[in-house]
Amino acid sequence: MPCDYGVRDGPKPKHIDRKAIHTSLEERIKYLHDFLEFGSADIEALASGAKYIKQLIPAVVNLVYKKLLQYDITSRAFHTRTTACEDELEEDFLHEETPQIQRRKMFLRWYLTRLCQDPTSIDFWRYLNKVGLMHCGQERMAPLNIEYVHINACMGYIQDIFIEALMSHPHLSLRRKIALVRAVNKILWIQNDLFAKWRVRDGEEYADEMSIYSFGSREGYLGDKKILGSSSGSSDDDDRSSITSVAPSTQSAAPSTNTTDTTHTAQTTQSARSGPTKSSACPFAEFSKAQSMETKIWAE
Ligand code: HEM
């Protein structure tokens, strides 16, 4: 007779529909939010911390482009729009000061600015998904094919810059630093998934039924318009933190982290938002409302 170890009385696992997470962006995001426990604490941290992230954007952009131009395989993509071709370039490699790179830096600045906007809006996640799609070489007009190894490395690099810069902020309390770093990380990991989903083959048997921009619409379509080339048949603040001396290198990389709030009054005002209580059409707006700020690890 089999032993009863009393494990059968445990909580029933939540059901996640495999097909739904492969075919519906909404369902995929809901699952990722639930798994990562992305909720009101994160939304609050992002709303109140947006100004600190915005202060970092110019430095993050410069560091990312310095990095991407450091290797021929990634630098070449700014000429050829692909990392999959190793042919010798006819022209010189671009450098940071060239107008082309300055223009591309502007794209990344816009992207990072959008990351500071409202994650309770559907459009926020659609945009992240669109950025993922854009790099996977499937768009019809001027495809951009950046292989995942570079995307993943770049995401890790961006995450590392944010962790160092936010954790070494001179005025934010440790509690707020932690909340902000956690929230930013969750968004970056979801963005990483929205890059990877266009590359991995998981769920490919549902390729015909995948949605992309409009929840519930077909993969590769924006409304009725097909956009994929390939057949889709297939308050400043707080108490001084005790770790302000951490990571001194950030101060050279991101000098603006040392500025005071008064320098950024305009930005601050501009970024002031009504926070998580703002009414939203987004199905995620009310998600995980009851989240606590207590840490899981040190709670005991
Ligand atoms: C991993 C994080 C990355 C993010 C968040 C990101 C974001 C973006 C965004 C927002 C655009 C602008 C698209 C538009 O609005 O037209 C863009 C374009 C582009 N990205 Fe990325 N990117 C990433 C990684 C990379 C990497 C690793 C490379 C190269 C190895 C790369 C190469 C390009 C190129 C060549 C363009 C096209 C620029 C143009 O059309 O002039 N990206 N990227």
TrEMBL record:
Signal peptide: none annotated. It comes from the Eukaryota. Residues 229-285 are annotated as: Disordered. GO terms for molecular function: heme binding; oxygen binding. Residues 252-274 have a biased composition (Low complexity). Gene3D superfamilies: Globins. Residues 26-205 form the Globin-sensor domain. This is Globin-sensor domain-containing protein. It comes from Penicillium argentinense.
